[in-house]
Each structure stands twice: as C-alpha cells, then as structure tokens.
Design goal:
Blueprint: E1 9-15, H1 22-36, E2 40-46, H2 53-64, E3 69-72, H3 78-85, E4 90-93, H4 104-115, E5 119-123, E6 130-132, H5 136-153, E7 165-168, H6 169-178, H7 184-196, E8 201-205, E9 207-209, H8 220-236
Length: about 240
C-alpha cells in the first residue's frame, strides 16, 4: 500500500515579541499552503508578549478567519496548549521569526510521503543545510552542542536542537507525555524519546537564517540549562 502524504496540517507558531515578523510569516504560510492545495490551519500561541504581538495576532485572525488562523494565550506549555486545539492529521512546529523557510510543502511533502515517517525534521548539519547570519561564537556553540549530543546520546538524527519539524499528531501527543525538558533541551529530548519509542524520523536539509527583527534569547543561562539537560538525558536514556 502506498504511503499517504499529509492531509490537514496544523502549524503551531509560538510567539514572544514577534509583532514585526508575525504578519509576514503568516502571509507567507497562507500563500504557500494555498498554492500547494494543502488544507491547513495556523495556531498562534503567544507567551504574554508586551510589544503588541497579541493585538497583531487578533487582527490576523479576523483577516483570514478563525478556520485558518487561531490565536491562543497559553495556560501552560505552548505546544501542549496548541495541540488541544489542533485539528490537523499532522502538526508542524516552527519559529515565527522568519529563521525557518516557510515553503513547508517542500520541507515535508516528498520526504514524509516517500518514507511514511512519523517525524520529519529539518537539519542544518546534513546535505546542503546550513546556518546564515550567525557569528563564529554562536556557530561554535551550536556545533559543539550537536557534537556532544551525538557522542553521548547517539540519537540517529543529525540535528537535535533544531525546532523546525513535522509530526504525526498522535506521535507528538505521545512524545509530549514522555518529555520533561523545557527550552532548548526540549527539542533534543523529543528526538531521543522518539528513538526510544520506535518512531521513524526522516530528515530534510534546511537553511537556517538568523532573525531579522527582535533579539535571540540564547545566553549563558540557556547554555547551562542545555548542558544539564544533556547530562540528564544521558543518565536516564
């Protein structure tokens, strides 16, 4: 029996201070899905942005209709909250800062359909994938984190800290029940738990472009949290 490609797709779009980026990324997503004929919805989940992101999200919901754009204020973890409202067979998680290319059908359609994968993950460290706009320090941090993860956890995937992924909805629900990490470690744990549970993971090379507007939240605290989370996963998996 031939593998079935994605049906309705729900995009979970967590935001924090993305007032300038949100209208453009939503417009690009709507155009991309409409051009490809894929049924979709975009769920914007804002974490109390003080810059007016919530007002922008509410306006977008009115413009495109609540059947296509849904704005939420989470009462807990953004992804868990968003999944409660997602109606798609597949769920895409991506950043709202334009660092991820929004042509999602290129990202997942062929790979998911051909391999019938449970997860399709974007990778910056395979094929023609790469990172643009980072300084040398941040590139070294990212490469070093990925190298340590590969050595300690042997996850069977080349990019553990990326957040541009597609999941079968039921697979994402099961993984969320198992994962206990937050922040940057969360993305890593999702792939590690997927391997433990026997889910299949496909990879697609992507070009990651540093945000144009706003500031990255990567700092010393995040690096320390990553290292702690990595050691915890190493000791418990």
């Amino acid at each position: 029996m031939a593998a079935r490609g994605p049906g309705r797709v729900s995009v979970l779009l967590p935001t924090y201070n993305e007032r300038d980026n949100l209208p453009l990324v939503v417009w690009l997503l709507v155009r991309t899905f409409s051009d490809s004929g894929i049924d979709f919805e975009i769920i914007i989940i804002d974490d109390g942005s003080p810059d007016g992101t919530q007002e922008v999200a509410q306006q977008l919901e009115k413009i495109y209709g609540s059947d296509k754009i849904l704005f939420l204020c989470p009462s807990g973890t953004a992804y868990i909250h968003g999944m409660k409202y997602a109606t798609g067979d597949f769920i895409v998680i991506m950043d709202a800062d334009l660092s991820h290319h929004v042509r999602l059908h290129v990202f997942y359609s062929a790979t998911q359909k051909e391999g019938n994968f449970d997860i399709v993950s974007g990778t910056r460290y395979k094929g023609n994938g790469g990172v643009y706009g980072w300084d040398l320090k941040r590139k070294l941090i990212s490469r070093g984190a990925n190298f340590l993860t590969q050595v300690l956890l042997r996850p069977g995937a080349s990019d553990l800290t990326g957040s541009f992924r597609l999941y079968r909805k039921e697979v994402l629900q099961k993984l969320m029940e198992k994962c206990v990490s937050k922040g940057y470690v969360f993305q890593m744990e999702m792939i590690v738990r997927a391997r433990q549970l026997g889910f299949t993971v496909g990879e697609v090379p992507i070009s990651f472009v540093d945000r144009v507007y706003g500031e990255s939240k990567l700092g010393g605290n995040e690096i320390v949290s990553f290292l702690k989370g990595l050691l915890t996963l190493f000791a418990t998996t």
